[in-house]
Amino acid sequence: MSAPAAASYRAYFIGDACLCWSLGSAIERLTSLRILFVYRRLLADDRLAAMGVHDVVPSYTALAVHADPWSDWQEIERLVVRHFQGLPESEAELRGRSQRHVLPVAYQGVDLPRVAECSGLSPDEVVERHAAPEYMVAMIGFRPHFPYLLGLDPRLATPRLATPRLSVQAGAVAIGGEQTGVYPEASPGGWNIIGLTDPRLLDAVRPGDTIVFKRRVP
Question: What is the pLDDT of residues 51-79, one digit of tens each?
Answer without folding.
Answer: 999 999 999 999 999 999 999 999 999 99
